[in-house]
Amino acid sequence: MPSKTLRTDTETTPLANGSLGDMSPSEFRKHAAEFTEWIIRYLEHPERYKVLADVAPGDIKAKLPGSAPEQPESMESIFSDLDSIIAPALTHWNHPGFMAYFSNTASKPGILGEFVSAAINPNAMLWRTGPAVVELEEVVLDWLRQLLGLSADFYGLIHEGASLASLVALAAARESLNLRIREEGMIGRTDLPKLRVYASEHSHSSIDKAAIILGVGQSGITKIESDAEFRMIPDALERKIEIDLKQGVKPMAVVATVGTTSSTAVDPVKEIAAICRRYNIWLHIDAAYAGSAAVLSEKRWIFEGSETADSIVVNPHKWLFVPVDCSVLYCRKPDILRRAFSLIPEYLKTNEEVRNPMDYGVTLGRRFRALKLWFVIRTFGAEGIRERLRYHIQIAQDFKSWIEESPDFELIAPAPFSVVCFRYNPSGKKLHPAEIDKLNETLMERVNSTGEVFLSHTKLRNCFVLRIAIGNLGTTERHVKRAWELLQEHSGTPRSA
Amino acid sequence: MPSKTLRTDTETTPLANGSLGDMSPSEFRKHAAEFTEWIIRYLEHPERYKVLADVAPGDIKAKLPGSAPEQPESMESIFSDLDSIIAPALTHWNHPGFMAYFSNTASKPGILGEFVSAAINPNAMLWRTGPAVVELEEVVLDWLRQLLGLSADFYGLIHEGASLASLVALAAARESLNLRIREEGMIGRTDLPKLRVYASEHSHSSIDKAAIILGVGQSGITKIESDAEFRMIPDALERKIEIDLKQGVKPMAVVATVGTTSSTAVDPVKEIAAICRRYNIWLHIDAAYAGSAAVLSEKRWIFEGSETADSIVVNPHKWLFVPVDCSVLYCRKPDILRRAFSLIPEYLKTNEEVRNPMDYGVTLGRRFRALKLWFVIRTFGAEGIRERLRYHIQIAQDFKSWIEESPDFELIAPAPFSVVCFRYNPSGKKLHPAEIDKLNETLMERVNSTGEVFLSHTKLRNCFVLRIAIGNLGTTERHVKRAWELLQEHSGTPRSA
User: Fold this and answer.
1) CATH of A27-60+77-106+381-497, one of 2.102.10.10, 3.40.630.30, 2.60.120.10, 3.90.1150.170
2) Which chain A residues contact residue B61 at CB under 8 A?
């Protein structure tokens, strides 16, 4: 093969200067087949890599040239660097031992969806710039809405991530107050009440970030206390709202979390929704992780009361086997989203009576993300998705039962889904809390350094807590058992399993 | 092949319940090869489709099932729908006759980059969650920085689009004022001056959107008048700043546009930067489209003066052959970005002394977008990129010369890159301005309805203006000539070319 892969295929792309094309069909066919094999090897044998790579900051950079090549390089040289420099220095999210954060899966149908979507490369800012893109998104998000049991008046749109989706939702909440903030801003206005966003103390940091960006500020966020199971206490919420109202503070939004990031606690949506209705406050539900579980009839309760919520975010790229990125914002008041965001410059004006996605969020350009979600839902089928989620929950619950049965470990949170929070606390020893924290930190480092599994931590009630998160299609009972063995071995506990 | 594509490949993925896997290696190989052939056909023969599909709103939706399938469907059925329902209803961004908005290209190396990136599926929120992802991004963005001739102290990060990148930049500008807006918000504070964002009257709507989101409001944006070539007038900017300062208004940011969306005008960065230095104002440069042209020595002048700018956005997904999405924000003050955005929850705390991307923007989860940019820059080489940009500019300039030579068409803006703004204005007829507008609108509709080309419009000096934008690798002299023929035919002008 020639060293320059970039030459014109004159049969198919007639070019004026003979060099404009990027890769001939036959070369593309060859390289696509090579990458397909690379992907197959990568996905089928992830365990040849340590989950966390043995690299130090700067290691990868040191191996790469400091500037771009002047002349074209062959795909072979890229291929070789991918194998020797990039792959060994990845954190392997699709390793079955990846049990940190929220583990996820780029399923093969999802990967193929991205492949096709990149080739079509539409920009779905307007219906006109991608009729099938915009309509398929509407259809697939309606499928997902039905699968999750959400009411029919929720209008969905895909965003990059939940941070952005929640920002969009809270911007709409601000606009819904009719305070002319869009037009006149927030500064120096004597007619504006102080605004407040309420969220549980376990809510995601993206809510704080959104409040900061929107000019509400950290002082405009009230964190509501939670109960013994880390769920927001509705009475505490109502008390804070009452106090605020008496002081002339205007509630802007309440954020209920369905599946908190630390412990996957589910705030009581029904009670919170009732309070929001009573006080006429925008209710945003952050169900980025756990929302997907509502496909299961036995988990459908998590969205009970959501029919009067204003917005809900669910991330199919977390627990629905779709590659990152795909975060869905459902909103019952698209007209308010539109009021918050629509700005149509002359060059984007069209005549169609349609919903143009650019009017409902921050971004103008948008990829064809609905395609991968369509591929995934169709190839798995609703039943296939349910079966896999049930299995993830089942193996996480197995792990939970081992923790509960062990005298040397303790469960720290209820674990309603596929994440278990626990810690090592050896029986018979009266340890200082700081010592227990240190023991667990060391234990996590030791277990992670084996490269067989990757666990992450959090803090709950100010204690250092270990987390095991199941969400990858490759993760099976065997991997969870192995994680348990490693935890026992490295804590010096005799194996009980 | 069996009707259910989802079955376990027991040789490679041992599973507890025998059905967790999504697609066997051999099935993935088969389908990847099928999609590769589909992509080859799609990209090599785009002209079998009309650029704009003959569809009406709702047409696609009507052909799709109203709810998700319960049981898995075969990849064959998806394939068939892709061909019969989706592909014919797309606006074909990679059609060589796509000359609307800013036309772009998903080059084949870029498509392969997305394919691999979807399979690796890392979430590059932290260095720890993808060491190679974070470092490759740093390296490739430094390559690009050098290619564009930007000074060495610009730190780059990839965002979804320029709307988001500019929001991030303006949030940093707000934070740079040290007004404790992050902590205390913007409402009811007697210590806060009114803030102002200055941008040319031709700046992109995303600047307005960012100001709205950030609580500055539409009244906090001052549009600066432009000269005969649609470039911001520095003196007019300075006058507005002076007036504001006298009235106690605090300048928050100046946005200079390098390549406006309507006419690709280049604001005089050097003069604007001098004003920003004098008054100590954050300078953000929106070079989303035209920034890529700085790879050419003869276009390097567009960034003259940028060395004291605070932030610059350039979109490789516009004119650098990278599939959507890839927008780069360069910032000389990453510490301020960090102050504006960093919020590190306990569960994401790590020990490494590194730059974690999540601290520098809105989003937490981030795809491996650097990979496709790396593939593209390496396979094209810097020279290959320059050659193609020069060719695009050359064929656009050819078109411009035809317009200039025609007695019945007129050039409306200077066209420094590959976009030409023009209109039909038949000689010898004294038409009312509204009549000329109507003629051009009708002409655009007629030309677009042929399906051979897709042109878009804008308004300049309140006149309806046609635009031709060259940015696709498949577009050659032949296509530009054909567009010119169609414009002449459908306006009733005798062919002059």
Assistant:
1) 3.90.1150.170
2) 135, 138-139
